[in-house]
Write a structure and sequence with these properties.
Number of helices: 7
Strand content: 25-35%
Helix content: 40-55%
Number of strands: 8
Radius of gyration: 24 Å
Shape: elongated
Structural class: alpha+beta
Order of helices and strands: HHHHHEEEEEEEEHH
Largest sheet: 4 strands, antiparallel
Distance between the termini: 62 Å
Length: about 240
């Protein structure tokens, strides 16, 4: 029991928050480098799906929860800070849901080809509940240059309910039955496309809700009575009056 109290005391502090956030940021940076050098699967295996990553998520969640209790944010009506803590908890929960139940892979199609086989890693594959046909792939370049300015895929998505034509390009995502299809890359001969397919119907909404709560918490915390922001604003407003006297 004494050990549990010691763990709680250690985690319910701002210094623990700073340390855990620094560790999390360093971990994400390392994952980015690994993904760029060795690929997405290597980053998932080494970091995103590692046991210690879930331990870090749990420690951060406990830190936000216990710190909010220690500071008595609810009793003190610190709704902005409370929203911040709740938002961070939701972001962590959404990330955990994504890592546990979401998945992502690539769909490689040549013009005129139809497939529903999603490549998860070098050997693993999943069968999509719909089929995708690549009708046409288009690559656009900057005028007078060979550098690509954009590339897009015109596809037909076939489901048991019917079919629809979709154009997928860099900032335009196709959504179907909880799946999201992104334009990822293309074949060197410009006759084929590589689509990134993501399935995360629960984790993504939870994470986005957490982002919204964090933004709302920041706005409320900055404008709340007694906040440091309002104190500074009051000091700035009072300076001209003091100088005139």
């Amino acid at each position: 029991m004494k050990t549990l109290h010691e763990i709680r005391d250690a985690l319910s502090s701002w210094s623990a928050t700073a340390l855990l956030l620094a560790l999390y940021a360093t971990t994400l940076a390392a994952a980015t480098f690994i993904e760029a050098a060795l690929g997405t699967e290597a980053a998932r295996s080494a970091i995103y799906h590692a046991w210690w990553m879930y331990l870090l998520y749990g420690a951060m969640g406990l830190n936000f929860w216990w710190l909010a209790q220690r500071l008595q944010l609810r009793k003190r009506h610190r709704w902005g800070t409370l929203l911040l803590h709740g938002g961070f908890l939701l972001i962590l929960l959404g990330a955990a849901i994504t890592h546990l139940w979401g998945y992502e892979g690539t769909l490689h199609l040549r013009e005129g080809e139809t497939s529903n086989q999603l490549k998860i890693s070098h050997t693993d594959r999943r069968t999509l509940p719909f089929q995708v046909t690549l009708r046409d792939f288009q690559l656009k370049r900057y005028p007078g240059s060979l550098t690509p300015s954009s590339y897009e895929s015109e596809v037909t998505i076939q489901t048991p309910q019917g079919q629809r034509d979709v154009r997928i390009f860099m900032n335009h995502i196709a959504r179907i039955n909880g799946f999201r299809l992104y334009q990822a890359s293309y074949d060197p001969d410009e006759r084929g496309t590589i689509l990134s397919v993501n399935y995360d119907p629960i984790g993504t909404p939870v994470t986005y809700t957490g982002y919204f709560m964090v933004i709302a918490g920041l706005v409320i915390a900055l404008g709340q009575k007694g906040s440091r922001f309002r104190q500074l604003f009051a000091q700035l407003d009072a300076q001209p009056t003091a100088q005139s006297t």
